[in-house]
Amino acid sequence: MATLSCDIPESLSWALEQRFQATREDTSTFVSRVLLRALSKPVHTLFQVSTSRALVQGVYQEAVSSTRLLGHGDFGLGTFDELDGEMVVLDGIVYQVRSDGTVHHIDGDVGTPFATVLFFSPGEDVQLQSLESFAALCAVCDQHRASQNIFYAFRVDGVFSHVHTRAMHKQQSGVSLKTAAGRQPEFHFNDIEGTLVGFWSPQYVGSVDIPGYHFHFLSKDRTKGGHVLECAGADIRLQIEIVKEFHLSLPDTEEFLQADLTVDLSKDLSAAEGNHSERKS
Ligand SMILES: [Zn+2]
């Protein structure tokens, strides 16, 4: 994160202080949100690359570059060309969690066949003493969702007593997501500080996005991560953003243009992208 320091009139400073006391929103979040609006960056708008139905069918070639992706958001998740690991976008940086468990900071340009990002601008900020499980996290998030019909973004920071993740193995295009998910390595981390990056999407977008909750993890030291299967922790900060705008970017690759996307593969999507371990199901 960059640090911004500047002089402003006393009267404005006083007004800002009043606002912070009233809303409990921190300065960084507020200034980022105002700057995004002033600089014409889309606010509360999900940018989605390709569709979950194409991903389930094995359409794994680049649809959008990571540089373009960052033009549409600083927070999100997805995967990479040929399903080469899990993507976490946090504070404007793209991280790749590979199947050997290593985490790479992407500073060049790489491709993604499927990703969801936005400029994170939370409207709610809550503190939780503890979280017993992934189900408990979902239950808390449920309490802060007033609708089943719009999108939500969640950022969860804290100290996790346990995080269980997986990371996809690189695959050739055409291997179905369900088959690919059956070969994914899983990881267990204990007593680890970090961030969960996640979304909740409505059921009706099941052929485009991944319905329900979907979280990826990144440790504070940026060396561990993955698609979250289970977690527990304490001293948790949960930030929530309501999202009502949706921008879908469709690939113009031959692979996507010729794919048969008429088949409903929602069960395969749920099996591959759900938060359960493939070995347990
Ligand atoms: Zn995932």
List keywords for this structure.
disordered C terminus; 23% helix; alpha+beta; 5-stranded antiparallel beta sheet; 14 strands; single chain; 281 residues
What's the quick description here?
The chain is α+β, with helices and mostly antiparallel strands and 281 residues long.
Characterize the structure shown:
The protein has 281 residues and is an alpha+beta fold. The chain has one domain (45-273): Hypothetical protein, similar to alpha- acetolactate decarboxylase, domain 2 (60s Ribosomal Protein L30, Chain: A), CATH 3.30.1330. Helix content is 23%, strand content 37%. It is built from 8 helices and 14 strands. It has helices at residues 10-23, 27-38, 52-57, 66-70, 134-143, 177-181, 254-257, 266-273, and strands at 45-49, 64-65, 75-79, 86-90, 93-97, 103-106, 111-112, 115-118, 124-131, 151-166, 186-201, 212-219, 225-243, 245-249. The structure holds zinc ion.
List the helices and strands and how they pair.
Elements: H1 10-23, H2 27-38, E1 45-49, H3 52-57, E2 64-65, H4 66-70, E3 75-79, E4 86-90, E5 93-97, E6 103-106, E7 111-112, E8 115-118, E9 124-131, H5 134-143, E10 151-166, H6 177-181, E11 186-201, E12 212-219, E13 225-243, E14 245-249, H7 254-257, H8 266-273
Parallel strand pairs: 1-14
Antiparallel strand pairs: 1-8, 2-7, 3-4, 3-8, 4-5, 5-6, 9-13, 10-11, 10-13, 11-12, 12-13
